């Protein structure tokens, strides 16, 4: 679609106004900070969303293909994390370390998982305790959520974004973020635990839980 001659993308969903407000305000903040993101296009009366509809600028580019592309993605993610230290949590969401004690948060219901699986997930998340929090994109290792050109890296699809520990975003193909062995293991285990919990109980979630070591 086009809005005032510009290519745009429309997304219609059932998320709450509070959730959409959090996401659109975050995107505008990141745009002002110099990141390439799908900036919402206001309605004629200035609103960034209306009745669950958000219209955003279309971003050119293709998925990351080379290790250098993924290193650029890692650099972009670290800038996202720097720009969002102290950002408030997405309404209704919990961080991985919140779930050391909480049972539920948006898409997560630990009560629906096997007790042994919950124990494994919490052991993985406990290794992140005490680290500073920021906004994480939530699914940057999916090539479909990144648009790369020779001049910039854009992050799209912010549905899974929330406040958490930055290393959850840095489990990238080929360890493109350059985490050392211990840091990569901690991040990868915590990330697998998160993916299992947020997707439970489809086949993908079962596979991700199998990656989390037994306590």
3D structure, described in words:
- This is Phosphotransferase.
- With 215 residues, the chain is an alpha+beta fold.
- Helix 3 runs antiparallel to helix 4 (181-199) and helix 4 packs antiparallel against helix 5 (203-210).
- The protein has 2 domains: 2-57, no CATH class; 67-210, Alpha-Beta Complex (Aminoglycoside 3'-phosphotransferase, Chain: A, domain 2).
- It has a 3-stranded antiparallel sheet, with no helix packed on it. Strands 4-5 form a two-stranded antiparallel ribbon.
- The mean pLDDT is 96.
- The protein is globular.
- It contains 5 helices and 9 strands.
Strand order of the largest sheet: 1-2-3
Report the principal-axis shape.
globular
Stretches where pLDDT is under 50 for at least 5 consecutive residues are: none
Question: How far apart are the first and last residues' alpha carbons, in Å?
Answer: 51 Å
CATH architecture of the largest domain: Alpha-Beta Complex
The third-level CATH topology of the largest domain is Aminoglycoside 3'-phosphotransferase, Chain: A, domain 2
Number of helices: 5
Structural class call reads: alpha+beta
Largest sheet: 3 strands, antiparallel
